[in-house]
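hey so i finally got around to running the thing on that chain from the lab meeting. sorry it took forever, my laptop kept dying and i had to restart like 3 times. anyway pasting the input first so we r on the same page abt which one it is
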Amino acid sequence: MASLTQATQAPNFKRPASVLVVVFTRAGEFLLMQRIRPAHFWQSVTGSLQPGESPRLAAVRELREETGLLGSGQLIDLQQSRLFPIIAAWRARYRANHCFNREHWFALALPGRRLIRLNAEEHSHYQWLGLSQALELASSWTNREAMRWLAGCVTPA
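ok and heres what got predicted. didnt touch it at all, straight out
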């Protein structure tokens, strides 16, 4: 049996499963946040599932942690997911044999803009943007695809 010291020093790898929560207003503005690392990386709410956590619970948790928004009742499960290669900047967070991540999509529609309480350890700025500006700024192809899907610009997979 491993000692308590060994157990507490074991690496805490992320699960290769995550959520994407696209927050938008009924006027068609999308919330994007700039990550601290990597620099110049803009995204919607995202985060890895914790051990034993469902995608929905992870979406609610990440939404609260990253924005301060409490949206569990209004959170929409888009019944969409995408598999993508884990980018080099984040590869060390995962076990060596995990090269791909499964991202589950959710959305939160708001009547209008809200003040966002950023998690300063993860994000430095946020913006509410129209679809075309949000598509230009979003760093992740899955984030862009989810925004297009929500805007009705693409057919669901």
